[in-house]
């Protein structure tokens, strides 16, 4: 009797366990849904409204571009079928590929693209430069339009291609909404369609394959080539805790971890079910941004002094740890590995405390407090900044280090107030991808004083050099001008390069076809 | 009784008004700017000013307050500054996970703590009592996130019995729903179970020493009716009060548990709104959370009458 009772209990428990396991374990049938955890929660879907990385990632799913960069960072036609430039370099004619449709089934036309370029150019730095050189647009027919320039601008195609903020094409009615009104309709013509009804900010965003998308015939190459959507559905899950995300990846509950902390990498490499891959050949440039409005950094000598307090190898060791993922030294302003990488004009970027002290003295620094904003919730920025702070203290600087969360820093750094009245002197940030490789697209390099980004770098000579570079249409001459630009930059020092590193992604080993596109993209990916 | 309820509702309205003013002022005088978060890493000063203007954040604070209160009177809690979705819709979308987690946590805690507390009181000074108290001390001492990660490691990664994270609504089936709630409820419930066990034990020890319990024993009544009919009913008021206060404790714990287990509930909505300075969402969540807290207290007050006829007579 007792034995029978025990048997009954064991059978019941087994059935219950089997039921639980069936409920918990993912279905074994080949499903074409990719569950990805991205670097942040998608809250804004308008790429002209926000420059947040997650918004740009979303845009690559739902929108397409006229041009896209290949792995040599050359712009290649994407939505454009053919294009030509007039002999005087002032008229660019574009013909779109036939058969392209918006997600609502209506055809993509020249008028849509012109409206999209207009919207993008109001916000994008390259677009604004292009607009200043433009005479206007001409819509020739449904598939052909022209950009007419009043003065030479050699970067029209490069600007449209971009990388971190290209000109995403959207229907005319959406693109023509006022720029200060956030668009809420994600209709594009890209390889995936956003399921707006399933989008729950803070929880998930869902995309399904666009059955009408016609990919180019070329194989995928960086951001260019055929964007073949092989997945039926992409689910972006927002998991704020990295430990939980790692556990979910190990357990097979998610397929793709877009930005794992670098200290997880070794653990993931040891797991045969997880692949760690670097998709970005350039990576991320970390930098210290001085405020050019107030002493001591309103004097270029003080900014030059910072160059003698930087040990890139030490900073990157603190930020990354594993030498596989950072460069021991990268002295250029324009991203090591890019066509604009140069050593021209380099000074400093090695620690020389005495030299730094002498330059601070020449700048008239006399022990006044220097307000440094230290982010408490950005471990990588914090690590690099702590290395710099240690060197600054060795140089005898009187630092007022203010530990704040990043949201507070982003608000505070926009203030033009004196540092003792709520302003600041220095903070650390980063930028990534091919854009920083361009003197024009690198927004922290912009030295147009009041029109420059926060920190308000100010150097008329450097600005003139960059404008001349942008007007030049001969790539060889333009490359030669980069040396001159960088030499000048090491005099005025708009920011200090703290080093360059790459951020790998991680995914389950049954995921194939991940494109090394610099930014995470979801075309060509298969789940086996 | 009706008077009592009306008085409570009146005081609730006053509490809500005070909360509204404090919440509105505190989040605006604090550092940070939603426009800076919206604009992203590479925004210019002009971008920030444009976004501030379009969101009405450049208006005087008094104007913003009156505008918000005016809309609130019409039941409109405003829109998220980020997703432009109505605040009430965002909160409604997060209610099921949080209510599910809170309910299963309370059920687990109450169903284990009260029997354990009674047994410990009954066996006071013996090894059973010591074991229960040791368990309660350990459960109370561990931070929630350590318990959470430990349970995930054991039950999700090693044994593969339960999922690591996430929430499945009841509409997807009771098995999925419950399996996703087991680990978070255990994590969150252990601390509360420990607190309630100790409270039940100490209250029961006190009641078991009363004269009427001695009388019941001398009449030859067995242990079960003594413990559950005579002692527990008289010990109920402090236990119910602890359960009520425990819900306030839960509000704090839910934030951690929802983060560790990626449960898209109210706690995570609050954290996200605070880190991004999404003012309308913070205001909406805090206002409704304080309303919920006041209502729970009201229910706890009313429940006293169920256990003690003297209170029932006083309120009626």
Report the mean per-residue pLDDT of chain A as an integer.
90
Low-confidence stretches of chain A: 1-7, 9-29
- Total number of β-strand segments of chain B? 0
Overall pLDDT metric of chain B: 86
Shape of chain B: globular
Walk me through this protein's architecture.
The complex is a heterodimer of chains A (about 525) and B (about 325). Chain A has about 525 residues and is α+β, with helices and mostly antiparallel strands. Chain A is built from 15 helices and 20 strands. Chain A has helices at about 1-25, 55-60, 110-125, 125-135, 155-160, 170-175, 240-250, 265-270, 300-305, 310-320, 355-360, 380-395, 405-410, 460-470, 475-490, and strands spanning about 35, 65-70, 75, 80-85, 90-95, 135-140, 145-150, 190-195, 205-210, 235, 255, 275, 285-290, 370-375, 400-405, 425-430, 495-500, 505-510, 510, 525. In chain A, the strands form five sheets. Chain A has a seven-stranded mixed beta sheet. In chain A, strands 15-14-16-13-17 form a five-stranded mixed beta sheet. A four-stranded antiparallel beta sheet of chain A has the order 4-5-7-6. Chain B has about 325 residues and is an all-alpha fold. Chain B has 13 helices and no strands. Chain B has helices at about 1-30, 35-40, 45-55, 60-75, 85-120, 125-140, 145-160, 175-210, 210-220, 225-260, 265-275, 280-305, 310-315. Chain B is globular. At the A-B interface, α1, α7 and α13 of A face α2, α3, α5, α7 and α8 of B.
């Amino acid at each position: 009797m007792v034995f029978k009772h025990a048997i009954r209990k064991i059978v019941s428990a087994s059935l219950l366990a089997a039921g639980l396991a069936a409920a918990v374990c993912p279905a074994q049938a080949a499903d074409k849904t990719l569950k990805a955890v991205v670097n942040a929660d998608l809250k804004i879907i308008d790429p002209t409204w926000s420059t947040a990385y997650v918004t740009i990632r979303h845009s690559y799913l739902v929108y397409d571009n006229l041009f896209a960069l290949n792995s040599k960072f050359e712009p290649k036609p994407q939505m454009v079928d053919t294009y030509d430039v007039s002999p005087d370099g002032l008229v660019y004619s574009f013909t779109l590929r036939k058969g392209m449709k918006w997600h609502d089934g209506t055809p993509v036309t020249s008028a849509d693209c012109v409206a999209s370029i207009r919207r993008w150019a109001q916000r994008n730095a390259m677009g604004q430069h292009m607009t200043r050189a433009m005479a206007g647009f001409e819509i020739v027919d449904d598939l052909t339009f022209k950009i007419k320039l009043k003065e030479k601008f050699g970067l029209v195609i490069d600007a449209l291609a971009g990388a971190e903020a290209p000109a995403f094409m959207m229907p005319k009615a959406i693109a023509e909404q006022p720029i200060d009104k956030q668009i809420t309709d994600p209709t594009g013509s890209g390889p995936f369609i956003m399921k707006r009804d399933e989008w729950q900010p803070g929880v998930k965003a869902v995309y399904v394959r666009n059955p009408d998308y016609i990919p180019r015939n070329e194989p995928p190459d960086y951001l260019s080539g055929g964007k073949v959507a092989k997945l039926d559905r992409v689910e972006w899950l927002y998991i704020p805790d990295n430990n939980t995300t790692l556990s979910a990846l190990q357990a097979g509950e998610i397929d793709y971890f877009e930005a794992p902390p670098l200290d997880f990498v070794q653990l993931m490499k040891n797991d045969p079910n997880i692949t760690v891959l670097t998709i970005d050949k350039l990576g991320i440039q970390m930098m210290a941004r001085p405020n050019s409005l107030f002493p001591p950094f309103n004097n270029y000598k003080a900014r030059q002094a910072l160059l003698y307090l930087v040990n890139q190898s030490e900073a990157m060791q603190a930020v990354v740890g594993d030498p596989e993922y950072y460069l021991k030294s990268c002295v250029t302003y324009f991203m090591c590995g890019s066509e604009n990488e140069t050593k021209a004009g380099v000074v400093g970027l090695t620690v020389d405390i005495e030299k730094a002290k002498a330059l601070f003295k020449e700048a008239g620094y006399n022990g006044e407090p220097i307000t440094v904003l230290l982010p408490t919730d950005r471990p990588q920025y914090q690590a690099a900044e702590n290395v710099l702070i240690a060197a600054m203290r060795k140089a005898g600087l009187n630092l007022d280090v203010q530990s704040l969360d990043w949201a507070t820093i982003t608000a505070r750094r926009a203030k033009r107030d004196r540092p003792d009245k709520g302003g600041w002197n220095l903070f650390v940030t980063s930028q990534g991808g091919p854009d920083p490789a361009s003197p024009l697209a690198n927004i922290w390099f912009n030295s147009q004083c009041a029109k420059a980004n926060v920190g308000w770098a100010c150097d008329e000579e450097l600005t003139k050099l960059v404008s001349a570079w942008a007007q030049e249409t001969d790539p060889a001459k333009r490359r030669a001008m980069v040396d001159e630009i960088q030499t000048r930059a090491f005099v005025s020092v708009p920011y200090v390069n703290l080093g360059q590193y790459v951020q790998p992604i991680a995914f389950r080993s049954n995921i194939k076809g991940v494109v090394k596109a610099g930014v995470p993209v979801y075309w060509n990916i298969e789940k086996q | 009784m009706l008077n009592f309820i009306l008085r409570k509702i009146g005081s609730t309205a006053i509490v809500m008004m005070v909360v509204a003013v404090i919440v509105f002022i505190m989040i605006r005088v604090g550092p940070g700017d939603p426009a800076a978060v919206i604009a992203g890493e590479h925004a210019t000063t002009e971008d920030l000013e444009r976004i501030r203007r379009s969101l009405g954040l450049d208006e005087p604070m008094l104007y913003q307050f009156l505008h918000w209160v005016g809309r609130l009177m019409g039941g409109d809690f405003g829109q998220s500054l980020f997703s432009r979705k109505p605040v009430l819709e965002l909160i409604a979308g997060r209610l099921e996970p949080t209510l599910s987690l809170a309910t299963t946590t309370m059920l687990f805690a109450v169903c284990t703590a009260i029997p354990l507390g009674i047994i410990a009181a009954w066996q006071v000074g013996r090894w059973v009592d010591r074991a229960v108290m040791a368990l309660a001390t350990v459960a109370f001492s561990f931070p929630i996130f350590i318990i959470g990660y430990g349970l995930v490691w054991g039950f999700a990664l090693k044994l593969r019995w339960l999922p690591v994270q996430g929430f499945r609504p009841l509409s997807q089936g009771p098995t999925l729903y419950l399996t996703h709630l087991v680990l978070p409820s255990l994590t969150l419930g252990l601390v509360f179970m420990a607190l309630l066990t100790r409270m039940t034990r100490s209250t029961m020890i006190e009641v078991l020493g009363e004269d009427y319990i001695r009388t019941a024993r001398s009449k030859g009544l067995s242990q079960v009716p003594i413990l559950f009919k005579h002692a527990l009913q008289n010990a109920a008021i402090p236990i119910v009060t602890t359960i009520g206060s425990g819900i306030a404790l839960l509000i704090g714990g839910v934030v951690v548990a929802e983060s560790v287990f990626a449960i898209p509930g109210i706690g995570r909505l609050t954290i996200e709104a605070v880190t991004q300075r999404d003012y309308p969402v913070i205001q909406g969540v805090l206002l409704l959370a304080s309303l919920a807290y006041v209502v729970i207290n009201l229910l706890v007050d009313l429940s006293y009458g169920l256990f003690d006829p003297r209170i029932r007579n006083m309120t009626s």
